[in-house]
Every structure is written in structure tokens, then in C-alpha cells.
Amino acid sequence: MSQKEKKSGIKRRDFLKIIGVAGGTAAVASSCSDPVEQIIPYVIPPENVIPGIPKFYSSTCRECSAGCGIIVKNREGRAIKVEGNPNSPISKGKTCAMGQASLQGLYNPDRVRSPFRYNNEVKRMEPVGWEAGLKELADRVSKLKSEGKGDKIVYLSNNISGTYGSLVKDWLKATGGGKHYMYETFSHEPIKKANEITFGKAEIPSYKIEEADYLLSFGADYLETWLSPVNNTAGFSKLKEVKDGKTGKIVHVEPRSSMTAASADKWVDIKPGTEQYLALGIANVIINKGWGKVSPGNVSAKVSSFTPKVVSELTEVKPELIEKIAKEFATNKSLAIGGGVANTASNATETHVAVNILNYICGNIGKTVDFSDTLSISNTSSYGEIKNLVDDMRAGNVELLIVHNVNPLFTLPSELNVREALANVGYIVSLSSFTDETSEHAKLVLPESSSFESWGDYQPRKSIISIVQPVMNQIFNTKSAGDILISSTKSNESLKDTFTENTYLEYLQSAWKKVGEYVEPRMRFDEFWEKALINGVVTVDQPEQIVTLSPKLDSIVFKPPVFSEDGDYYFITYPSYRFLDGRGANKPWLQELPEALTTSVWDSWVEVHPDTASKLGLKTGSFVKIESPLGSIETQVFVYEGIRPDTVAVPFGQGHKSYGRYAKDRGVNPLNILPSSFDDLSKGFAWLSTKVNLVKTGNEDLLVRTQYSLSQEDRRIAQAISLEKLSHNDDHHESHEEHPDFYPEKKYAKYRWAMNIDLNKCTGCGACVTACYAENNIPFVGKSEVAKRREMGWIRIERFFEKNEDGSLDTRFIPMLCQHCGNAPCEPVCPVYATYHNPEGLNGMVYNRCVGTRYCANNCIYKVRRFNWFEYKIPAPLNWQLNPDVTVRSKGVMEKCTFCVQRITYAKDLAKDENRLVKEGEFKTACEQVCPSDAIVFGNLIDEDSKVAKLSHDKRGYAVLEEINAKPGITYLKKVKQEKV
Amino acid sequence: MTKKLKFLPLFLLAIGVVLGGYFYTDKAQSDDKGPSQPILFSHKIHAGENEIPCETCHSYVAISPNPGIPSVQKCIGCHSQVKGRDVEYTTEGGQTINLKNEISKVVGYWQRKEPIPWIKVTTMPDYVRFNHKRHIKKGFECTTCHGEVAEMDVVYKAKSLRMGFCLSCHKQNADNEQHLDELRDCLTCHY
Q: Which alpha helices (DSSP H) does A536-661 contain, by range?
């Protein structure tokens, strides 16, 4: 024993013994007591609710104008998951990422929880009771009415169709003839106007992508936000089906390679604003060669001067390509669509007339373009009308403005100065659920309930009426907008006889009585109503419409686009498939969903071509000032090959100055530098109207993304095969070599759960990512944590930029998730057996065993394991959405995709009740269920008749990193390329 | 090293045991093993003397993972008639109550339309998933895991319900090797 140890008076060994015993004792003592938990019974149990058994309600998603039918899963009185309603012809059982995240609107901690009124004495908003709030509204309305100013009431809402629209009409009629404006930021005015000019129908038809095998899209971001993205994606999926060595073809024309362009077979990087010439050039070739299916008549004269050579000079598209597209378009069952960037220049209507001409001469009208079933978004006001309204407001001609579900201060250009206009409005009432830029100016806030808490209906197309029903009780002290309007009239003597109904439900039902009499004349109303509530959707047959050319077509002159000529670069801003017009920005799942092409989260960016970037000395992450004559915005650069060197692009939707903690002060709003200009013919806003300058600021920071590498460095992760090779009828499999194995082969008795992902159909939309967050209680971590590579998503979309043979961009998406390997590299390195291969082929992850060494994540070849660095807090009531069937993981624990084991267990439980095995298609994993393009198939590999078993032998099938021989449970199907690979 | 220090481990152990015991008994004033509930509800009287089947109150036990506890409405369904005798009743653990008084508490909750804040007896960690339906359908008695509830005045956790307890039963009930694999698979209960 050394002198030193003697001095301390205790031997090291003894010290350890004591600590050991003491520690052990403490542990024993503390583990003896279970935490005291209460168990609270119902006082009166709700009808038909069984704790532990979910309930499903049909309703309609109201996140955008598409109107997807949804089914909401309710557990113990709380809505916990949204899924598409298979009965809905719009959603076909699917949703997009925004639809998945809609629950975060319902449970948003920043919702307005009760009515507020401005107190003139203390100069601020104060809580007010519903009775007083409604009386305030009614008294003001009745005063205006008695003064003869009832027509100075304006009801400004988003696109409303169905019964609520007629309620607003009735209400405004009773209150003195005010006006109802339906305002959508992206309302496709040029399509309407062009259809009026070409066919005499100022409406938006249904475009049937599913019935085409050749799709020519002029800028329409049909996989992202255009008209009805989930429905369009279903059509896309059908078109992309590979059968007998054949598949459809998609050509996408846009100055930048959007997510939609990335999924096309050919991206044509056209000069901004010149799309009309290309369409006319294609029409010219078709007519000259006599390929058209309909006599062109007067159209010939319109297109005769647009020869491929002329068009090529105007558009910078090669003449050979124009001729090739013309031939393919004319000889296939085709469809041309227009939208997005192509439909937003000063000549947008002309562009769409040109698109109409293409469809007309190839006989697509009445086939892939259906005017009998038009879209309700056709009824919205044009930008020009909204601008006039703003001018009216500024001039003091609006005494009472009711704002409902729109945020014009954010979605209109700042040049319009909506702020000043709002200041000149007599009194502003907001029905908004959130304090956004516009409702901050309201003097009376009567918060409406979420669509998950209200009755209603929505008619996305003439043929479809979709039910909106409450899927749970009110969370806050709110009322549905319908009830606000109806009960406001009851609180004033002069208005109280406006409605015979006392609630909006009664009003809705009286409207639906008429629907019932028309659709099911022989059914009693209560039966019809119940059937409608269960189905969620009622379809109404539409008479066929014969469409002919309108004489107005003669008057059209194809003008060149007008740009403010001060800058060097065309400035594009495009609707985001995550936030649309900014309304999604307050939902953390959408903020944390990596954008498909950049994989950027929680921020804005500007896309700049590599040549432009090197010319200006910019790189990804550099801060740059984008200057227009109206001002400037500053954001970070993303150097992107998928954009023309003369163009820069900023996504729309960020840059909120209000709208709750997740949206506020994040990114930039491009509308701050855009002029209030519009397309002359349609009065649609000209999003593409400005040339800007880029000014390097010298600052630089990490542009926070989830994937920093752009290329797969020849690792053959996302593979492709050419159509030619695929159609060669040989059974040669280039992969699937037999690898010698050290371990005995694994045997499975009843189930081997496996998955199949078709890369030819994956669009990178991220619906699966958000669905996984929703189903599996995955926490969102915020920008700074993502910057540290600590995002928690169990499934991610990897995107790689490859090159086609001709040097053009080939964007590949591949969803990456736990592969549930047969020889999983993560398993043998776990020191505590927390991860293992289960008898059904799942790679099990036992949270309560995990001690957090993270060896498994290090050894995982697919890098799909996620570590809980913190106890992630989800602020109430967002946490009400948590799935009670999935453990909420705590700090220090590893997690990853479980193949939705809770759904497997649920299905097995039901199967055991009937003493059978789980049947094919009986349940779906969350990602498979949501996938709008049906790219994901899940099932039991043992069952030879299952889809997944059949697809695993597909000629296109391969395993990622097959050479490592991890024997993954996921088979990917190679993307099919029209060119050589 | 001094002699005193040699006893330190024992000393600490003693403190540990005392503290542990203190927390474990949940500050109960009686010898009843269960926690003190807002109403001294005697399972012995209900399930034992009156032979009310478990499923009468825990009505979802055979159709849901959760057995369910009766709503206040269900309690009052009987106790609007059964007001209780005005007699003293002494529990096994030596607590004395007046039956009429105790039942009047239920009526009080019902009148105030308040739920009864029962203390959970059979607790399970969040990472364990137990499906009552599966076990009942397989023919197991409630008593296998919950003990002789019909003989308890104040219900207590009769079995450890730790993983060893679960697994020993799962092993015994396996029909064959493959069934055993399924029954002792971690993902059966942990996900």
C-alpha cells in the first residue's frame, strides 16, 4: 500500500465495494415503487367507443382546393391519423404530405383558442365571450344595413363550394347585399380564360392523366400543387405502369427542373415565358405532317408561321426535339397540360390557348380533357378582381370585411400595399384559426373550428360532393364558420329571421335533402344521410359536353412575354408542395420534411445554376441579395444544375412575419420583390414578370439539408434500366448473384414481411415521410438539430443527380428506410441484444433493452437508424396526436423503421380471432398506405400469391448494396429510362 | 482502515431498505396491501360475496386490448338502487368504513358529474403492450395475472408482472418449437 493511499484511510478496492453496495441498495429501493398513476373512467361513456379500438370517420381534406376524401382514425376521442378514403374518386385512398400534416393544424399550439375583441380604451385585443362577440358582429352588420351600407360588407374567403357557399350568399343577402370573394393564391385564371377563348367555356376541365400514355406538360407541377396533385399522381402512376416492356412517356417543359420535371422522361429547359411558341411549333408540325386527328380549320392559320426553326430561336429548344415531340404527341393517346411557371407570365392565357390547340388537333378534347366534369376552383375570383377589392378597401369603400381562411397580406405582392388598404377598412372581422399577418389587423376575432371539428361539405368537381364531418369534439372554445354566421343573425332583432335553421348542421341537412332527392330519389333522407356519412362521398352523374372551337379564337394574338428589364436573371417563384401558398408553414412536420430536390428544411433558398454561381463567386450556402426594382430579399444559394443559367428560383410559402411559432421569421417571401402585374387577358397574377440581380453579400452559412451529396458516386444505389434492355425478352438478371454465406439460411414459418418499392413511380413527394412521422410518433427536432444530422425520420427520400447519355440531368429518387435485412449488420454489434431478427423477418428494435451505444447505427449500411439525443418535447396539444399503439421513445434510445409492427400486430390479432393467417392486403404500412403513386407494396413473402412475392422476382428488381449480402427485405424496382442507361 | 468503515455498506443498506419500504407502502395507514383509493371499493364484496363476473364491469376485456374500467354511470346503474346498509365494515387490512357512507361517495361523483380518480393498481411500463383480448380468448382466467381479486377488499398487484412472469407462462403454453419462437419474440410485447 502506498503512502498516499494510507493517508486517505480507505483502500481503493473497499471504496468500490461500498459504492457498489450503496448504489445497488438505492437502485433496489427506488425500483420497488411503481409510479402512482391514476386511471380515470368516463362519467357517461360515449356511444360506441371502446377504449383500445379505433374508430374511423369519413371526411374531406381541406388543406387545398383538391378536396381529397379522407378517413380519420380516432382513438379514445382523439383524431390520430389521416388516411385517404378509397371511395373518393379524387384521393383514391391516398393523401399528400400536406394532408398527412393537417392534424398538426387541428392540434396546433398556436391556434386561437377563444374569441377576441379590440378594446378601444386599453388599445389592445381582449378575450370576449361568444355571445358578446357574435352580438358585436350582428350589431355592426345591422347598423350598416339600416344605414343602407349593407353592400359595403365583404366576405373574403378561400375557395368554398357546396353548401357553405350558399350560406354565405344567404347571409350577405339578408345583411344588405354585400359581396363574396373567393380568393385562392393559385387560381389558374389563364386556364379558364384560355378555355373561354378556345372553346367558349370559362371553366377548368378534368384532365385525365390516367387515360393518357403520353403526357406533355407545359410547366404544370401536377405532382406538387397543380389542381389536384394526389389525383394527378394516381394518373401518373397508371401512365408509368410497365407492362410487356412498354410504358407511357412524359415530357415536361419548364425553365427549372421541378420535382415534377424530375419524374418526367424528358425535361425541356425552355426559355422562361416562351412556352406558347413551343406548343404552337409542335402544333405546326402536327398539322403540316397531317398527323392531327381533327380537322384543324382556322387553327392552321394561327400556327403556320411557327415553324420549328422559328420556334427554336424563340424558345432555345432544338428543332429536332420539337419534331420528335410532335410525332410522339400525335401518335400516342396524349394529353397536354399547362400550369405553374408556364401559366404565369404576362402572356399566360395565350400560352394556354396554344396548349388547347394541341389538345384540340389531336382529338384529346372529350377524351383526356373532360369538360363535362369541371373543377370548382373555376369559381374563384381572379387576381384582377382581388386587386380591385384591395383598391376599394384603400378608398374606404369597404365598411366591414370578414376574412375567412385567407391571408391576403401574405399572399398578395407588397407593392399592392394590402396593409394600407386594411387600415382603411371600417371594421375587420377574422374567422381565422390562426393569428396570421392579415388577422392581426382584425378588430374582432371569432375563431372557427378546424374542419376536423365541423360539419360541412365540399364539391371539388361537379360530379363529386364530399362530406366534411366532425371526427372529434372541439378542442378549444371555437365554433364552425357556418354556426358563426347563423348564430350571429340570431343575436340581433333585425336579422333574427334570416335563417329558419338554428345550427349549420340543420342548414346542411336541408341542402342535402335536395341532393338526396336527386341522387337517390327512392331512399329516405336519414338513410341517405347515413350512407353519405359512411361513404364520405356522393357522386352525381354529369351529362356529356360537346366542345367545339369558339370564334373568339380568331382574335388571339400570341404576344411575347413582358419582363421588367432591369435585371440579369429571370426570377421564378413557385408554389411549394409542402406549404402551398404559405398555409402549411405552421406545421412542424412540413417544415422538417426535406424538400425533394434540395433536401432543405425549415428555410428558404434560391436555386442558381453552377455556371451562374461560379460567375458570381457563389456556392451552396452563400447568402445572396435578390434585387428587383421593388426591393430585395436575402437568402442562401443552392447551386442546382436543374435550372437555366439565366434563371433563378425561390420557393413560395416561407417568410411569415406572424402565423405562429413554427412559421414566424423563417425564410423569405418572394412577393416582397414582385410587382403587382398581371396577364392582361385573364387578370391572373404574373408570377413570372421580373428580372432580378444577384448581389453577393459575402456571408456564408450551412444551408441546412438532410443530404449533402448530390451524386451516388457510382455506388448504384438508385438504379435505372433502359426500356430497350427491359423489352429484350431474356431472363438474364444482371444482379442477384448468389453470394456464399457463412450463416445457415433463415427459415420463416408463416410470415416473411417484405417490401417492394418501384423507383419508376416514386415522385419524391415525401408523403410517406410525413405519414411515418404521424403513425410512429417521430419527433420533429428543428433546424439546428437537423444541421447536426440529428433528424429523426425513419424513412427518407434520397435524391441523386445523374447524367443521361446526352448530358441532360437525370434525377433519381429512392426512399430509404430500414431494410429489415436477413443478415443485418446492426444485429451482431449490439452488446445487449436490443436489436435482432425476429421469426417473421422483422429487424426488431427493443427500446427498453437499448443502452444507447449507437454501434448499430455505425454498422448499418443503409444509415437508417436514428438516435434520441434528447427527450423531445412536443408542446400540447400537438401531443394529442400521438399514436397510443406506439411507444414514445426516450433519451438515449435508438430507433428506426419497424415496418409498422403495430399494424402487423393489429392485423394478426384480428386474424387470430378467426383462426387464420393475415390475408394479403388486409393492412398496409403507413408509407404504403399513403403513397399517391402506389410505388410501395408491402406484404408477406411466404405467400406466393402476394403482390410483394411476385414483384420480388420482377426483372427490374434489385437490392441496394447487394454486394454486402445483408439480404435486405426490400426489393427496389429500377427506374425505367426511355434512353440508354 | 477503521472498523467503522467496514459497517458502512451494511448501514447504507439498512437506510436503503427503510426508505424503500417507506415508498413502497405508499403511506398506507392500514395493512391493506393496495393503495388507498378515493372510494374504498371492495372487490371482495362485489366479485366475491355478490359473485358479479369481472366482465360485468370490465366489459371490453374480451374484445379489446384494454379491459376498460366502469364509467360512473355504470356504478350508479346499480347504486341508484343499492344504497348500502348503514353498517360498519372492516377490511382485511383493518380499515373500518360505513358501507352507506362509502356508496354515497359514488352518488356524489355522479351528481357532480365528476370521474372517480382511481389509483391504477396493475401498472405496466409504457414500452409493454399487453392485449387482454388475446389472453381471454385463449381461455386464461383473470386470476392468473391479477390474483384472487374476489378475496381482496383493496385490490393490490398480486403477481410481479415482470418479464420473467410473462415469459414463464408464454414458454409453458407453446404448442411447438415454432410457436415458442413466436411467444418469446421481443416484438410480441415491445414495440
A: 588-592, 610-616
Determine the residue of chain A that is closest to B188 in CA distance: A905
Q: Does A3 touch chain B (CB under 8 A)?
A: no
Nearest Cα residue to A781 out of A932, A651, A895: A895
Residue in B with minimal Cα distance to A902: B191
Q: Exposed/middle/buried for B46, CB within 10 Å: 0-12, 13-18, 19+?
A: middle
* Selected residue of A28, A42, A837, A849 to mutate for chain B interface (largest B Cβ count, 10 A): A42
Q: pTM of the full predicted structure?
A: 0.92
What is the model's pLDDT at position A920? 94
* Burial class (CB within 10 angstroms; exposed 0-12, middle 13-18, buried 19+) of B16: buried
**What pLDDT is recorded for position A1?**
41
Contact A586, A110 (CB under 8 A): yes
For the segment A694-723, what is each residue's pLDDT rounded down to a tens digit? 999 999 999 999 999 999 998 999 999 999
CATH number of A116-182+379-461+464-539: 3.40.50.740
Q: At what angle do helices A481-490 and A130-146 cross, to 10 degrees?
A: 70
* Torsions phi, psi for A599 (to 5 deg): 60, 25
Contact A721, A974 (CB under 8 A): yes
Return the residue matching grid coordinates 424496382.
A973
Residues of chain B with C-beta less than 8 angstroms from the C-beta of A25: 12-13, 15-17
User: What is the widest separation between alpha-carbon atoms in chain B?
Assistant: 73
> Do A652 and A574 touch, CB atoms closer than 8 A?
yes
Domain A189-374, CATH? 3.40.228.10
Instruction: Say what the pLDDT of residue A243 is.
Output: 87
> A250-307: per-residue pLDDT in tens?
999 999 999 999 999 999 999 999 999 999 999 999 999 999 999 888 889 989 999 9
DSSP per-residue codes, A453-488: SS-EEEEEETTEEEEE---S--SSS-B-HHHHHHHH
Residue boundaries of the structural domains of chain A: 116-182+379-461+464-539, 189-374, 569-700, 720-725+749-977
> How far from each other are the two terminal CA atoms of chain A, in whole angstroms?
75
Range in A178-182, A294-298, B45-49 with the lowest mean pLDDT: A294-298
* Predicted local confidence at residue A19, as pLDDT: 63
Q: Which amino acid is at A225?
A: T
Q: Which residue of B has its CA nearest to A26?
A: B16
Pick the residue of A8, A16, A33 with the most B CBs within 10 A to test the interface with B by mutation. Answer: A33
Which residue type sits at A217?
Answer: S
Residue A565 is predicted with a pLDDT of: 74
We find that the CATH architecture of domain A720-725+749-977 is: 2-Layer Sandwich (3.30)
Q: Does A49 touch chain B (CB under 8 A)?
A: no
Q: For residue A893, which of A819, A830, A820, A968 has the smallest C-alpha distance?
A: A830
Q: How far is CA A136 from CA A8, A446, A496, A772, A836, in A?
A: 80, 11, 14, 45, 64
Q: Other C-beta atoms within 10 Å of B141: how many?
A: 10
At A326-345, the pLDDT tens digits run 999 999 999 999 999 999 99
Residue-level pLDDT at A244: 83
Helix (H, G, I), strand (E, B) or coil at A652: strand
Q: Is the pLDDT of residue A94 over 70?
A: yes
Predicted confidence (pLDDT) at residue B5 exceeds the cutoff of 80: no
**Looking at domain A569-700, which of 3.40.120.10, 1.50.10.20, 3.10.150.10, 2.40.40.20 is its CATH number?**
2.40.40.20
Q: Which residues pair with A572 in a beta bridge?
A: A649
pLDDT attached to residue B18: 53
Q: Is A846 on the interface with B (CB under 8 A)?
A: yes
Q: Return d(Cα A525, Cα A530) in angstroms, integer.
A: 8
- Whether B94 shows a pLDDT value over 50: the answer reads yes
Q: Average pLDDT of chain A?
A: 93
Cell numbers 445523374 label which residue?
A: A802
